[in-house]
Amino acid sequence: MVSDLSLSKNVCVIGAGPSGLVAARELRKEGHKVVVLEQKHDVGGQWLYEPNVEKEDLLGRNKFLEGRVCGHVDYGDQFKQDLKWAVKSRAEENDGNYKEVEEVFDAVVVATGHYSHPLMPTIKGMDTWKRKQMHSHIYRVPEPFRNEIESLEQDGRVVFADGSQVTADTILYCTGYTYTFPFLDTKGMVSVEDGGRVGPLYEHTFPPSLAPSLSFVGIPRKIIGFPFFESQAKWIAQLLSGKRRLPSWDDMMLAIKEFHQSRDAAGVPKHKTHDIADFEYCDRYADHVGFPHLEEWRKQLCLSAIVNADANLETYRDSLDDHDLLQEAFQSTHFTPLLGVPDFTV
Ligand SMILES: Cc1cc2nc3c(=O)[nH]c(=O)nc-3n(C[C@H](O)[C@H](O)[C@H](O)COP(=O)(O)OP(=O)(O)OC[C@H]3O[C@@H](n4cnc5c(N)ncnc54)[C@H](O)[C@@H]3O)c2cc1C
């Protein structure tokens, strides 16, 4: 555990999606020096819409995730007073070539997203099947799939468990996502079980043996993401500056064990360990760092979107049913300075 409590730390944030960006902002506000490493050409993560996917791997296997961009993060001796992280990355130069860079940091925040790495099933024959297979991560528009099936050919046959079969031009895997950190070497102190349980992680954020020098933002799913990531970022920043302290290693490990036991007892599969779906948990999390609780309008809008999506998945995004809640939302400090209050009467 790190006991160097000097105020300003040199921190590497891996990933520049919403989690990484808010982590960088909160760390800087707290006086830390921050370097953000991002594998794509711009920031935004999932919100950086990339229409041109022709050159991408159809199964969504991002070549950089195999460990070339963020390189290797060496962990220091956990019992040393001053834990450091050597981070190797590749920086693109003006001529398009890449230069290897190695820097040493006091802390690393992993913010590589919970929807970055597709979870693929294992199906006998999928490695040798000749036709197109892709994960929904790469799906954008339906046009390329229209009128593609022409005939029942032997080499494109898919045999189902019940004995029925079809010939498919494309298999589109809508099989969700998994967590993977191929660039991160913690000597086994952090691992991913069954593609979905990252651990041990105290409050889904801190590996007890390495925290707060190593932390994760954005692991939880089925939450209202942005405020949650912000509260995680604040907690990390304040721990690193010594303003707050984590519980003892024993207490964190006990909390993790109890949490996992409660998930197992409830029959939650391991790959759903970090699916929260609990507003009250988010408020309890926020209390660790004095972050405001979720506003009522935010919770109601979230629930309303879920209900509307259930009722009509095709069109729910196009209708504006929650005028009152939206008016309330736009009055909040999160929106007012940027957008003003929109006029729905137009
Ligand atoms: C189809 C889809 C729809 C969604 N819709 C919504 C929505 O409507 N509202 C909502 O709140 N959320 C939505 N989400 C959830 C979305 O994941 C979050 O909003 C948010 O983007 C998560 O932020 P993040 O920074 O944790 O992860 P991401 O946005 O995934 O960002 C992670 C970043 O890390 C980078 N990265 C990954 N590995 C490395 C590496 N080794 N080295 C360097 N960089 C790396 C990635 O390139 C990426 O930029 C949606 C997700 C998907 C897939």
TrEMBL record:
Coiled-coil portions: none
Query: Pfam families given for it?
Result: FMO-like (PF00743), Pyr_redox_2 (PF07992)
Q: What is its EC number?
A: 1.-.-.-
Q: Which cofactor does it need?
A: FAD
* Molecular function terms from GO: flavin adenine dinucleotide binding; N,N-dimethylaniline monooxygenase activity; NADP binding
Name the domain of life this protein comes from.
Eukaryota
Keyword Flavoprotein on entry: yes
Residue limits of the FAD/NAD(P)-binding domain? Answer: 10-128
Give UniProt keywords alphabetically.
FAD, Flavoprotein, Monooxygenase, NADP, Oxidoreductase
Matches recorded under InterPro entries: FAD/NAD-bd_sf, FAD/NAD-binding_dom, Flavin_mOase, Flavin_mOase-like, FMO-like
Keyword NADP in annotation: yes
Under PANTHER family, the record lists: DIMETHYLANILINE MONOOXYGENASE
Say which family it is in.
Answer: Belongs to the FMO family.
- Protein name per its UniProtKB record: Flavin-containing monooxygenase
Q: Which organism is it from?
A: Hevea brasiliensis
